[in-house]
Amino acid sequence: MRRLTGVVGAALGLALVLASCGDGKSSDSGSGGGAKSEVIAIAADPLEYINPLNENGSPGIQVAMAMFAPLVTTDPNTGKLQNVMADSVTPDKTSQTWTIKLKPGNTFQNGQPVTAKDYVDSWNMTAEGSNAWKNNGFFSKVDGYDALNPPTADGATPKPTAVKTLSGLKQVDNLTFTVKLKVPFSQFGLTLQYLGLAPLPEEVRKNPDAYKRKPIGNGPYKLAADWNAGDDIKLAKWDGYKASAAPEADSITYRFIPNADTAYNEFLAGNVDFTDVPSTKVKSFKTDAPDQWVTSVSSGANYLVFPAWDPRYKNPKLRHAFSEAIDRKAFADLVGLSDPAKGLIAPDINGYRADACKYCDFDATKAKQLLQEAGGFSGVVNISYSTTSATGQIFAEAIGNMLRQNLGLQVKYTGKQGSEITELADSRKLDGLRFGGWGHDYPSIEDYLTPMFKSNGDANFAGYSNPALDALLAKGDAEPDQDKAIKLYQQAEDIALEDMPLIPLYTKSNAYLHSAKIEPRVSKYVGVSALWATFK
Amino acid sequence: MIRFVARRVLAAIPIGLVVTLGVYALVFAMPGDPLRELAGDKPIPAAVLAAKRAQFHLDDPFIVQYLLSMKDILTGHFGTTFAGADIADQLRLRIPVTLKLTLLANAFQWTLGLFFGIYAGFKRNGWVDRSLLLTTLVLLAVPGLVAYFAAQYLFGVELKWFPVSGVLEGFPRSYLLPALVIGVLGFAGLARLLRTSIVETVNADFVKTARAKGLGEQRVLWRHILPNALLPVITFIGLDLAGMFGGAIITESIFNLPGLGQFMFQAIKLKEGGVVVLLSTLAFISFIVINLLVDVLYGVVDPRVRNV
Question: Which residue ranges traverse the bilayer (chain B) (predicted)?
């Protein structure tokens, strides 16, 4: 279960850019020409539509990032929020009602001005359950969400509701609207950088299906050519973009190459300017493409998850023993491009502490002692791994061997489809340990702790629940001062580390290849972006 | 002749039903929830999940899902994939790609196979024959997957003789390398079969008779030996073409050719029973048609089987 699909929020824009003539070796791959042209290849199945509001997968969000602009974004140099479409985002005293003011003078690519009404109507459409748009869940924090999403019986199609608008969403004037949340939420301003909240112009809202291959954005690039099924996506710079500085490239083509190894070979052949390094090439990419690679810490953390529903794992001391028995350095080396994890959040997040975890250093003696104090372990430890991943079994056996050697436990392994493991865990039937991973939607320590550790959190893989932690999260959510809020979240993290419903394992870096023609933007806050590459 | 064809087509219908039902059952039995697989680790809003489930009949019992899928196929309402692609559109785009690849690969395979098979069979135990036996033995032992990646790296990345992947350079350039690899890997079995068949035929009585009548060596070879030696090879065509689709799944994935094989691969990955059954039905129909043609052709070549 290490598939962090759909994890890439707007803050994490990793546009994979292929360019027509890689390293000066002539090879025309059909780009728009021009001095600063790039061709973008994505190692995924081709997109069927472009609509940021109905898109939470990374390929779709990547393409949408070029065509749409978010309200706010993270400054790649400072890590601070900066405005894009927004002129100001202001919470009230309790952080429950937020006022969003738009910059005047911005238009959609069809020439219509971007107004508060566009945002309010687009968001209402997305929040309506019967539309079944993928970013529907984002609005669950907003007042009135439940009226648009009544519970639906299994197997029934959600019916359109009589109510069509979120009661918490109010247009004040042409450029101002307010969002009232169900409960105070100090991090809401950060969440607004998610690209899945981009507005759609009125003509698209009337008939989204008719525009699924003809998106009208409000961002720096527009479609340069008709885009039919099976075509590459060709974009050209749109000169009407005024909201913020635009990237350098004049034209960009996105190419979809579902097989990641094939995409890698396309790069080596010089047809590609920028591509992901697939997991199979982690050991060889530096020699395959010397001086043409960049790495960055990925905003994701990887864990070993305990089943909270199995009484044998109930004693926290036992969980600490497991954690101490794992040689994280060796494991990170096995994974490749990884570092041992020392906490529950990714290292590039504001509020990360390198020494948060007290039980994450390899110490076999202490591990044995803790296991004894916990009263030992009866039976066999089962480790489930995903057969969908090429490395699942290897990683499971590595962990299993450490538990066997350092704690003298009996271990067995079960390979299943990733989704099957999720289902078993969701229905509290899974036996033993499993791997889990999480990457944030917006760069906040809160976006790790809430989904994973809050009772009934969206990604609470372990089924963990602790009222003290929930209370601290609520306090952090209600604290308008960001520094104070982070302190509260860190206290929540300490509780989670003490309870250890899951063991932090490693944080991974992502690696990318780029041709000599471009220099991708590398930021410790938002990762690597080829969309924002500079040309030499 | 008409009766023969009609009989074969009618016999194919129950087989087709069993095949599609079997394929559907296999997909249905695959573990995991396809919609969750689509989402990875991210939670999907309940409303989205419910709507998708209803749209694709995922909550119905197995047999109902199968019947609904078959109804869609037979009435030509292909609908969309889980990801929202229009299936009819996809077929329009993908069938030509797979046809081009298959035909080109077959052209290579038959040219090589017939040439070497006939040459080695006529000139038994010569150096061509010996080296052919050795080469084909090696080729038969090479796994396709390895050969495709190796060829892509060597001829595409290093030597730059061919495009690495995709169909941007159109036909035939984009198809040459994968077709060549398939052809070279596939001709081995064909050449060996043909050679053996020729060697067996050479010792048949009718060949001795022909020689005794004083016919020239060339005439004996081309008019008496070869037509008879080709009979088992014709059977080989039908089986081989059936296997082509299976091979296309791997080839099209590695060379990023947007054909039916790649579509099948994606559909299996996502447990899209409807798409898998649709493509299997297509494959089955083409298999029936090809074999029918092969049998008719057999009758043309060999008068003995005409009235069977």
Answer: 9-30, 101-120, 132-155, 175-194, 229-255, 275-301
- How far apart are the C-alpha atoms of B252 and B257, rounded to whole Å? 5
Separation CA A444–CA B154 (nearest Å): 46
Inspect the interface and report whether the beta carbons of A6 and B85 lie closer than 8 Å. no
Q: Tokens representing A185? A: 């939420």
Burial of A118: CB neighbours in 10 Å, binned 0-12, 13-18, 19+: buried
The dihedrals phi and psi of A239, each to the nearest 5 degrees, come to: -75, -5
- Nearest by Cα to A322 from A411, A253, A201, A384: A411
- Any B CB within 8 A of A1 CB: yes
Q: Which residues of B touch A255 (CB under 8 A)?
A: 166
Task: Give me the helix-helix angle, B231-254 and B273-301, nearest 10°.
Answer: 150
Q: By CA distance, what is A1's nearest residue in B?
A: B41
Contact A454, A470 (CB under 8 A): yes
Per the CB < 8 A criterion, the answer to whether A423 and B36 are in contact is yes
- Taking CB atoms and an 8 Å limit, are B256 and A257 in contact across chains? yes
CA–CA dist B248, B243 (Å, integer): 9
The residues, any chain, with a CB within 8 Å of residue A268's CB and separated by 6 or more, are A288, A289, B153, B157
Write down the CATH number for the domain with range B90-305: 1.10.3720.10
Strands A293-297 and A502-514, how do they pair? antiparallel
Q: Which residues of B touch A1 (CB under 8 A)?
A: 41
Residues 6+ apart with CB under 8 A from A518: A17, A19, A38, A273, A274, A530, A533, A534, A535, A536
d(CA B96, CA B101): 9
Q: How far apart are CA B265 and CA B90, in angstroms?
A: 14
Query: Which tens digit of pLDDT belongs to each residue from A481-516?
Result: 889 999 999 999 999 999 999 999 999 888 999 999
What's phi and psi for B237, nearest 5 deg? Answer: -55, -50
Whether the Cβ atoms of residue B113 and residue B190 lie closer than 8 Å to each other: yes
Q: How far apart are CA A442 and CA B291, in angstroms?
A: 58
B53 in contact with A at a CB cutoff of 8 Å? yes
- What residue in B sits closest to A302 (Cα-Cα)? B41
What Rg do the C-alpha atoms of chain A give, in angstroms?
Answer: 24
d(CA B122, CA B293): 28
Asked if residue A6 has pLDDT above 50, the reply is no
Q: Give B29-58 pLDDT, tens digit per residue.
A: 877 677 776 665 566 777 777 777 877 888
Nearest to B181 by CA among B156, B205, B204: B156
Per-residue pLDDT tens digits for B23-33: 888 888 877 67
Helical pair A446-453 and A467-477, crossing angle rounded to 10 deg: 150
For residue B124, which phi and psi values (nearest 5 degrees)? -60, 145
pLDDT at A21: 31
Q: How far is CA A3 from CA A9, B62, B119, in A?
A: 15, 29, 54
What is the C-alpha separation between B18 and A370, in angstroms, rounded? 59
Question: Which amino acid is residue A61, in one-letter code?
Answer: I
Query: What length does chain B have?
Result: 308
Q: Give the global pTM.
A: 0.83
The residue length of chain A stands at 536
Please tell me chain A's helix, strand, coil percentages from 3-state DSSP, rounded to the nearest 5.
Answer: 30, 20, 45
In order of A308, A457, A458, A460, B36, the CA distances from A426 in angstroms are 11, 12, 11, 9, 12
- Shortest CA distance to A195 belongs to which of A447, A419, A8? A8
Peptide bond into B178 cis (omega under 30): no
Are A81 and A272 in contact by the 8 Å Cβ rule? The answer is no
Give residue limits of the domains in chain B. 1-75, 90-305
A163, A127 Cβ separation under 8 angstroms:
no
With cut-offs at 50, 70 and 90, classify the pLDDT of residue A354: confident
Residues in chain A with CB shorter than 8 Å from the CB of B60 are 155
